[in-house]
Amino acid sequence: MTKKKKSVKPSNDAALSRFVRIVGEKNALRGEDMTPYLREQRDLYRGKAAMVLKPANAEEVSKILALADKTKTVIVPQGGNTGLVGGQVPFDKNAIVVSTARLNKIREVDANANTMTVESGVILQNAQEAAVKAERLFPLSLGAEGSCTIGGNLSTNAGGTQVLAYGNARDLVLGLEVVLANGKILRGLRKLKKDNTGYDLRHLFMGAEGTLGIITAAVLKLFPSPRAISTAWIGVPSPEAALTLLNLALSRAGTSLTSFELMPRIALEFDLRHLPGARDPLASPHPWYVLAEIFGDDEARTRELMETLLADGMEKNLVVDATISESVEQRTMLWKLRTAMSDVQKPEGGSIKHDISVPVSSVPAFVKEATAKVEKMIPGARVVAFGHLGDGNLHYNVSQPVGADKAKFLAKWEALNEAVHAIVAKYEGSISAEHGIGFLKRDLLAKAKDPVALSVMHAIKQTLDPNGILNPGKVLRGRKS
Ligand code: ZN
């Protein structure tokens, strides 16, 4: 399928052994030992590679890239291998995977500057816990936090459930250390809030999915730990009502409103069928739900803020019923209902997925229009559109009709994507809100992105990686393909 490339490949042991010498024999994996690095969690892709290298520091990464650039060896950077678009998967039998697993040190927590300097292989949860120990909050929070890494989070500009108040991954970074394709180290680990000295290079590498350089460390922003949290599960009549409620909540709570998630009844029903211990938080069913959370500095005041919001919402017919969590356990359970919503689709058969965003004000119209289109294309298809209403980001997933043939349904993946993305385009939205482009959406990007923006992206890639060694074929098509 793919054309043979002319570049020199380390196809023999002598060439590979030069790479092995940089990290030492026990940090260079081959054969069976590579398996966990070649499989991706959803089993969408099975990768192949010549070797996995686990460097210990930026200097070793630098030596690897300098040698790879000289020998035109394909390098695929990999963090926790939890990516959902195949960006971390190597597809070339001569490729070398550079795993950041050993770049796992938290170098410094500076509570007074509200910063934390971490290496890129630090697992997100470990970063969150280090912040807690210093009585601070690192607010990036997402389903894979127990195994994804900071480097992967930044490379994909991850989102998650607290973007509403704190922004995406890229908004949480003050400084970066990056190894460029030629092995040079860009040392930008600065803690400055203000630094207007020309182009802001750090943002080039965030969201670049390892195609422009390998992030080896970052200075992350910390925030005050919340002293009180109020979480509510709210039954609402429609996405329109949820949108009005969101703006009511923002006007009352401002940036203390940290999450505002929208979920349809069917997603809760999947939870009730497939998530052990799940139960409906409300007495009777509602067509849509909101999971809202407010952070505050005082337990009683925070709860009162939530109660007033809900009472106000009821008066305006935006809220039909609601429950506020009374304990940490209840809060955990409510969040579990939300975070399990991807997994509980699996036992329901095939699911065609979209990770889209539209302007927040357009979410209700988008849902209505896309759902009408999907139901017309595939009668009986079950739309499971849930996600981060506060960010205009929905995981617009479509489960197969009950009893339908899974393979036949999944064969409609591209046609359905095309139809849904056309509606996204109509509302001036994005085909990838928080998962990235990787391999899965590379060709979609080429169609959806503004052509001028796309040509600038190609120019940047050409400048920073002229030999095309860094994660080729991800995000952008190669020049020849
Ligand atoms: Zn999400």
Compact summary:
By secondary structure, this protein is an alpha+beta fold. Helix content is 34%, strand content 20%. The protein has four domains: 12-99, Uridine Diphospho-n-acetylenolpyruvylglucosamine Reductase, domain 2, CATH 3.30.43.10; 106-224, Uridine Diphospho-n-acetylenolpyruvylglucosamine Reductase, domain 3 (2-Layer Sandwich); 229-339, Alpha-Beta Plaits (2-Layer Sandwich); 349-426, Alpha-Beta Plaits, CATH 3.30.70.2740.
Describe this structure in words.
This protein is of the alpha+beta class and 481 residues long. Helices cover 34% and strands 20% of the residues. Strand 18 and strand 19 form a beta hairpin. Helix 1 (13-23) runs antiparallel to helix 3 (58-71) and helix 12 (363-377) packs antiparallel against helix 14. Residues 1-8 have low confidence and may be disordered. Residues 159, 387-388, 395, 434 line the site of zinc ion. Zinc ion (ZN) binds at residues 159, 387-388, 395, 434.
Notable characteristics:
481 residues; alpha+beta; Uridine Diphospho-n-acetylenolpyruvylglucosamine Reductase, domain 2; Uridine Diphospho-n-acetylenolpyruvylglucosamine Reductase, domain 3; Alpha-Beta Plaits; 4 domains; 5-stranded antiparallel β-sheet; 16 helices; 19 strands; 34% helix; disordered N terminus; binds zinc ion
